[in-house]
Design a protein that fits this description.
Multidrug efflux transporter AcrB transmembrane fold; 691 residues; alpha+beta; Alpha-Beta Plaits; 4-stranded antiparallel beta sheet; 3 domains
Length: 691
């Protein structure tokens, strides 16, 4: 290993040039990576709603309605004119209104009240619009312009458009604040004005390379695109920090040989950095096991990012530090952070009560973390203060909650379709059904219907029914409605029908992601445990470290339960792997230093030396992770991203608390188990030397 690092140090200028060129190339490639803003696209290909969408796209023109547009204070003729204007917008595939479900030439009082009020109420018209995935941002903007300031536009495609236009601006703001805070913390915890810039330069190179190489995936989700770079920066900051602090220690021992000091620093810190990086990579890779494709999307991109950060830590960082050492030394300043010996003694005095408290909260935290209420789909992605939230509230105030399901059944047997339609009309929350048998009647021959209407309702092999429902896109009543519609279709067309819609996709999303939880968590915990077992050569230490971080995760996820705040299940699912992978590094560093000090010092002195010696490194990385996460939580208007950031930031604080205040006491309390393998190895080495 020493020979390898000597070669890296010797060829540092070449290494530096290669990484800088790679970063510049990937900065260009980054703009070529497509971003997907529809979480339903990540449902498994064999999910019923996904299969239904594919079949419908093949059989019928237009897709599933994905927007609701309300226009205020219009008469019937004016509403029909608005319908034509909406239909003429580029990217709009279909517009449905009252004239598609009833004869608008008859007096309103003669119409079915429930059908009428689904589309027209108190002078307000509600249009159901299907917007294409191509150019949907411009299409949504045009719909809003036509609807006017008093109108309202809502729906899943609108939420996607708002995410596409607003998310990256907010992420850029979070990134700017995060970089500024990282500079501030690094300026406090380093001894040269140049070192913070060098650490951030390393992070920038790693982030650019990762973002550019995402091109190999072709497309990434907006969650990965928005949070990936921020997470990579916050999680991998400690690799360069750990190495920098080791380098400073080694330079004190070898003041006239900076290259030799760097080689020694690399050799001494490789174990901690590599095990920290591997556990993080594995924690992220566990997300790949999710059937819900968003996990695979995030897992691969984040794991690749951490792997790239590890590579830069072992190659780019030492090369950069040594090439700029002359200027770094000229810009030396006195340490701003006082010695942490007092903090170490303070922690030692609290070890016993904190260890007891830790044991007492494990079970309640675990139970509470598993008792949360959840959001599964994208309906709650924007809060009531956003434009999307205000428009949604405006539509629901007049017309109530609403969604559109599309049911496709085989054949053209109008008698069977009429029976099915009658059953569907009887279901709670179904307010109207548009189909051939509802539009023309089962007794009207097909040739009497105009070709345009017929093409929307019948293909060569299938008939289509469009259901308007007064139910939200997720929740218990929605899921019960989806099951009822499927049961009705199964009664007449067993195993041969197809049902799609936002509520249907959310139902399938719910059943998919809930099945993923056990697999992802068990694999993440097991894989991290195995890495720690191999690197630490101890059975007890992996148990202790994983239990400590898992308890911090449970405490983090227990907060929404006690606050009565529902959380997005997707966030709930991925935060466990992210927090485990991101913060187990701190526990590894502290444990390695404890064993190192314990080999030469009594237990109490070793504990104090460990805490005082690692606190700055751990707090530097942990505080940046916490602040960046909390900034994302408070600055993002997208509630899914905001919740991910909030849980990440709060989770980092819980992990910091467990590692700095609880873990030292647990290590000291189980000192014999902690040091057993190390003492055995030392005895074997001594016996070998005597031989």
């Amino acid at each position: 290993m020493e020979r390898f690092y000597t070669g890296v140090v010797r060829h540092r200028r070449l290494v530096l040039a290669l990484f800088l060129l790679s970063a510049l190339a990937c900065l260009v490639l980054r703009g070529m990576v497509r971003v997907n803003y529809d979480v339903n696209k990540y449902l498994p290909a064999d999910t019923a709603s996904t299969v239904s969408l594919h079949v419908m796209e093949r059989e019928f023109p237009g897709g599933i309605p994905n927007a609701r547009v309300m226009v205020r204070d219009v008469a019937i003729p004016e509403a029909l004119e608005y319908k034509q204007r909406f239909a003429a917008v580029p990217g709009v595939e279909a517009v449905t209104w009252l004239d598609d479900a009833a004869d608008v030439t008859v007096p309103l009082a003669a119409m079915d009240k429930e059908t009428l009020e689904s589309y027209y109420r108190d002078g307000n018209a509600l249009f159901t619009v299907t917007v294409s995935e191509d150019g949907y941002v411009d299409a949504v903007a045009a719909l809003r312009e036509i609807a006017g300031d008093t109108g309202a536009v809502t729906g899943t495609i609108v939420a996607q458009a708002d995410s596409a236009t607003g998310t990256m601006d907010e992420v850029g703001l979070v990134g700017a604040f995060g970089v500024a805070f990282a500079l501030f913390v690094l300026a406090l915890t380093t001894t040269s004005w140049l070192e913070p810039l060098l650490v951030l330069a390393n992070l920038g190179v790693a982030v650019f390379i990762n973002a550019g190489t995402n091109l190999i995936f072709g497309e990434i989700s907006f969650v990965t695109n928005a949070s990936g770079s921020i997470l990579q920066m916050a999680v991998s900051l400690d690799y360069a920090v750990f190495l920098l602090h080791r380098f400073d220690e080694c330079r004190q021992e070898m003041p006239h040989d900076p290259q030799g000091a760097m080689v020694q620093a690399l050799c001494k810190s490789t174990g901690s950095i590599l095990s920290s990086g591997l556990t993080t990579v594995i924690g992220f890779l566990a997300l790949v096991l999710m059937r819900f494709g968003l996990g695979r999307d995030m897992g691969l991109a984040l794991a690749k990012g951490i792997a790239i950060s590890l590579i830069t830590a072992f190659f780019f960082v030492p090369s950069l530090f040594l090439c700029t050492l002359r200027w770094s030394d000229k810009l030396r300043h006195r340490p701003f952070v006082p010695g942490m010996g007092g903090f170490g003694r303070f922690v030692r005095r609290l070890t016993a009560p904190l260890a007891v408290l830790f044991v007492l909260v494990i079970a309640p935290a675990y139970l509470a973390s598993n008792a949360n209420d959840f959001y599964y789909g994208a309906a709650q992605m924007y809060g009531p203060q956003s434009r999307y939230g205000r428009d949604t509230a405006a539509v629901e105030e007049v017309f109530g909650r609403g969604d559109t399901y599309v049911l496709m059944v085989p054949g053209r047997d109008t008698a069977v379709q009429a029976a099915l339609s009658a059953d569907l009309h009887e279901l709670d929350h179904v307010t109207s059904v548009i189909s051939y048998v509802d539009r023309a009647g089962a007794e009207v021959p097909l040739e009497y219907l105009d070709e345009g209407t017929l093409a929307l309702l019948m293909s060569d092999d299938y008939s289509r029914m469009v259901l308007t429902v007064d139910a939200p896109t997720e929740g218990d009543e929605t899921f019960a409605l989806v099951e009822a519609v499927r049961a009705a279709a199964e009664k007449y067309y067993p195993g041969t029908y197809y049902l799609a819609g936002q509520g249907v996709s959310t139902y399938d999303l719910m059943t998919t992601v809930t099945a993923d939880l056990a697999n992802v968590n068990l694999v993440a915990i097991g894989a991290v445990f195995l890495v720690l077992l191999l690197t630490m050569r101890s059975l007890w230490l992996p148990v202790l470290l994983v239990l400590g971080i898992e308890t911090a995760i449970w405490l983090n996820l227990a907060v929404p339960y006690f606050a009565g705040t529902p959380i997005f299940y997707i966030t709930y699912l991925i935060i466990s792997s992210i927090q485990l992978g991101a913060t187990v590094d701190y526990a590894i560093l502290l444990t390695d230093r404890y064993r190192e000090h314990r080999a030469a010092l009594p237990k109490k002195e070793a504990l104090i030396a460990t805490v005082s010696g690692t606190a700055v490194s751990i707090l530097t990385s942990g505080s940046v992770l916490a602040v960046v996460g909390l900034l994302m939580g408070y600055l993002s208007s997208n509630r899914l991203l905001a919740q991910l950031g909030l849980l990440l930031g709060r989770g980092a604080l819980f992990s910091l608390g467990v590692v700095l205040f609880v873990l030292p006491g647990l290590l000291a309390a189980s000192d014999k188990l902690v040091m057993f393998r190390r003492q055995t190895a030392e005895k074997q080495e001594a016996k070998g030397e005597q031989t």
